[in-house]
Amino acid sequence: MRTRRLGELGLEVSELGLGCMGLSDFYSSSAATESQGVALIQRALDLGVTLLDTADVYGPHTNERTVGRALKGRRDGVTLATKFGIVRDGQSTSRGVNGHPDYVRSACDASLERLGVDRIDLYYQHRVDPNIPIEETVGAMAGLVSQGKVRYLGLSEAAPATIRRAHKVHPISALQTEYSLWSRDPEDEILPTLRELKIGFVPYSPLGRGFLAGRFRTVEDLAPDDWRRHSPRFQGENFAKNLAVLEQINELAQRKGCTPSQLALAWLLAKGPDVVPIPGTTSPQRLQENLESVDIRLTDEELDAIEAAAPQGIAQGQRYHPTMMTLLDG
C-alpha cells in the first residue's frame, strides 16, 4: 500500500482508508457484531491501511468504541480520524448540529475516552453549524491541537467560502465530502478550492453507498432497517434509471478485468495524489477487493469511457433525504 499526503502539515496516510461507519450503524442494525468489526479493522491494518475513519454520531458512540478496541496494541502507525458536530439522541432519526466551542472541547474529550487514546490524529467538524461562526469552531479545534489532544484538523461537507475562512484560523489538512461516480459535484468548486489551498480530499461513500458495487438490483435487496430505503436515489424511478448507468459501469469493469467497485475506486484514485477515498464494508472479501483497486491503472481512453458513462449529474435523486440535505453547508 502506497501513501498519500493530506495537507501541508505532514499528514501522510495509506492511499485508501477504511470508513468504519457501516460496521455499526445506518445500513443495518445487524451489519456486524463488535467482534466482527474489530476483526475487519485489524484485517485492514494487516493489509496496509493506516487511515481509520469514524465519528461520535455513529451508533451513536458505539463505532468509536469498536475502533478503539481494534486499536489496542496496534496504535502506532495508524492515523485515527473521528468527527464531532452532528447531535443525535439515539432514539430517533432526527439530527442537529453543534459547533459551539464548549461543545467542541467536551466532544473531543468524550471521543478520546471512547477510543481509549490520548490523541486524535485527524479531527473533523462533521457538519458546519450555521449558527456559530466557523472561526469560533475552528478556533476551539485549534486549541485542542495546542493541548496535544489533536494533531490535524479537518472539515466535512463545508462550502468553499467556509473552507477559506476556516483555513485562515488554522491550517485545514483534509476536507471530507461525498464523492463518487454518481456524486461528482465537488469537481465544480470544492476540488479547485482545496488544491489552491493545498488541502487534502477524503471522499466518503466512494462506492455510492454500495450502489456502485452492483449488489442491489431492487430496494428489497436492502435490509428492512437500512436507511438507504429512504434515500431518494434508491427509490422508484430514480433507482431504475441509476441501474441503467450501473450497467455501463459493469461493462467497462468487465473489459478491464476488474469489479465495478474496483473500477470506481481506481477512477477516484486517478483524480490526483491528494485524493484518499475511504470505502467501508462489513465483509473481509469486499475489503480485499476494494484494496486491490490501488493496483489498477486506467488509461486515458478508459478514463474517457468512464466519464462518458457517468458524467456529472447523471445520478437521479438527491444524495440525502430532504431533512438531511438541510445539514449541508451552502
Task: Give your account of this protein's structure.
This protein has helices at residues 34-46, 62-70, 101-115, 134-146, 160-169, 190-197, 236-256, 260-269, 284-291, 300-309, 322-325, and strands at residues 3-6, 11-14, 18-19, 51-53, 79-84, 86-87, 96-97, 120-125, 150-156, 174-178, 200-204. With 330 residues, it is of the alpha/beta class. The longest helix is centred in the C-terminal third of the chain and has 21 residues, at 236-256.
Write down how many β-strands occur, each being a DSSP E stretch of 2 or more residues.
11
Overall helicity: 25-40%
Mean pLDDT metric:
94
- Approximately what portion of the residues adopt beta-strand conformation? 5-15%
Report how far the terminal alpha carbons are from each other.
Answer: 36 Å
Which outline best applies? globular
Please give the count of helices. Answer: 11
Structural class: alpha/beta
Uncertain regions spanning at least 5 consecutive residues: none
The largest sheet, given as strand count, sense and whether it forms a barrel, is: 7 strands, parallel
Cα-based radius of gyration, to the nearest Å: 19 Å
Strand order of the largest sheet: 3-4-5-8-9-10-11
H/E series, N to C?
EEEHEHEEEHEHEHEHEHHHHH
Summarize the structure.
The chain has 330 residues and is an alpha/beta fold.
List its traits.
330 residues, alpha/beta, 7-stranded parallel beta sheet, two-stranded antiparallel ribbon, 11 strands, 37% helix, globular
